[in-house]
Design goal:
The protein has two domains: 7-104 and 274-305, 3-Layer(aba) Sandwich (Aminopeptidase), CATH 3.40.630; 111-237, Aminopeptidase, CATH 3.40.630.30. Helices cover 30% and strands 26% of the residues. It has ten helices and eleven strands. It has helices spanning 11-15, 61-68, 87-93, 119-131, 144-158, 168-174, 213-217, 220-234, 259-267, 283-292, and strands at 22-25, 32-37, 44-48, 74-78, 97-108, 133-137, 180-187, 190-200, 203-211, 239-243, 270-280. Strand 8 (190-200) and strand 9 form a beta hairpin. Helix 4 crosses helix 8 (220-234). The longest helix is centred in the middle third of the chain and has 15 residues, at 144-158. It is globular and about 60 Å long.
């Protein structure tokens, strides 16, 4: 069996984000980040790969950051909730910013779905299984056209911009990522919904999903999630990371009521915190750039990039 990193920890996934920055390996910890030029300044900063920084050995991250910090103004990342780290380690690595960004919904695959699936989800699941047929795609790359078509619907429906508005070229690389698992829902012979997962160790990470209008009407998401749970349970994984709800960072004490949170929470058995962390390596240059942008006080980090993904 190959020992090469899979999922968000793989070189292939980092390369799929090349249009947003130069993928750089943190050699000791095994994480990847994007080195990005800063418009108007002969400087660069670092950003953990979207949607989260994943490391093979978190105990070596501090050493890696010390080395890359010689060439960067700052570094920011959302931290993998399933990483082998604690708050003490993260505080050492990121002394400037450490925010409880969001809670991720997680599913313990050792528990039978009947023990946690709410009645509303069960009703929608029954209708979904009657309306669509679901299969795992043995060769995800062969479905690039279907996937980009459906993702185009998602982009238009939610006015997606920035990092998550992936291009076709990016998806062509992502669908070849080691550890990627794709499921497809069809109705009347037409692809109406697809879902992508990235597997690392004993965790399957919900990556992306997209649907046609018929897919939304058929509640294809329920059949797709149900099939994924069955598949990953049979393959002896322990956890699903379903990600967070919609919107920006949230207070962990606030109950989320957006549709995505309600949907994900119904499949989850627990939650885990995801931290947003940041570090300034060159304070003088950082402050100079913030001042040059006429940037008022803000919680956004790095402050000189506020608004770039709006």
């Amino acid at each position: 069996m190959s020992s090469l990193p899979t999922g968000y920890g793989s070189a292939g996934y980092a390369d799929s984000l090349r249009e947003f920055g130069e993928p750089i390996l943190l050699p000791q910890s095994g994480g990847w980040f994007l080195k990005r030029p800063i418009t108007g300044f002969p400087k660069h900063d670092g950003m953990g790969c979207y949607p989260m920084l994943s490391c093979r050995d978190w105990t070596q991250l501090e050493s890696d950051l010390f080395e890359v910090g010689r060439e960067l103004i700052s570094f920011s990342a959302v931290i993998d909730p399933f990483g082998n780290h604690d708050e003490t380690l993260l505080n050492r690595c990121f002394p400037d910013v450490m925010i409880h960004f969001k809670n991720h919904y997680v599913t313990d695959l050792s528990k039978p779905p009947a023990s946690y699936l709410p009645s509303r989800h069960q009703r929608n699941l029954k209708k979904s299984l009657e309306a669509v047929r679901v299969e795992r795609c043995e060769n995800p790359g062969a479905f690039l056209d279907d996937w980009t078509r459906l993702y185009g619907v998602l982009i238009a429906r939610h006015s997606i911009r920035g990092l998550s508005a992936f291009s076709r070229d990016s998806f062509a690389v992502q669908l070849q990522t080691p550890g990627l698992v794709m499921f497809r829902a069809t109705r009347e012979g037409e692809t109406v919904g697809m879902i992508l997962w990235l597997v690392q160790n004993d965790v399957a990470y919900y990556h992306l999903a997209a649907y046609s209008e018929m897919g939304y009407e058929s509640r294809a998401s329920f059949a797709l999630f149900w099939t994924a749970i069955d598949y990953f349970s049979a393959n002896k994984l322990r956890w699903l990371n379903l990600g967070a709800g919609a919107g920006a960072g949230t207070d962990s004490t606030v109950v989320q009521t957006d549709g995505l949170s309600i949907f994900k929470s119904g499949w989850a058995t627990d939650q885990r915190p995801a931290w947003f962390c940041g570090r300034v390596f060159d304070r003088t240059s950082y402050d100079t750039m913030v001042s040059a942008r006429n940037q008022p006080p803000t919680a956004y980090f790095p402050a000189y990039r506020k608004g770039e993904f709006a």
